[in-house]
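Feature request, filed as a ticket because there's no other form

It would be nice if the structure record came with a short human-readable summary line next to the tokens. Right now we just get the raw output. Example of a typical job, pasted below so the devs can see what we mean:
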Amino acid sequence: MKLNLRPRTQPEVNLTSLIDVVLLLLIFFMVSTSFVKQSQIAIRLPEADSAAIVEEPPQKIDIMITANGTYLINNRELINNRPETIRNALRKVSAGNTRLPLTISADANAKHQHVVTAMDVAGRLGFTQISIATVNDPVE
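Raw output as currently delivered:
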């Protein structure tokens, strides 16, 4: 028995339909994708210069009078309680700006004359916004 053997043919894979499907999917995804462009603002921030420290003039002036008659202007103690010393200190602290608000606060045991002296010196220098602060003792 002799069998006729035919030569085997190699199977052929047709990639044309596969390529068509991939290209169609690629086109579909490209068309359906929305490209969002986010808006941006260019900001240029200033740089700090640490070498140039400017001492700003005070926004208000505080005169404190202790029980023994010592004057403190913006928490700096004066060397004595003469009116000339108070005048010079107020000129230096205010830098000539007499429109700054000035607050006088005195200890409860301070003499009234010390408060009047501070008000007189400030009034002669031209300060018009003078107020007197009081401190209420806490009720026990």
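Something like this underneath would help us a lot:
The CA atoms of residues 78 and 95 lie 17 Å apart.
The longest strand covers residues 61-65.
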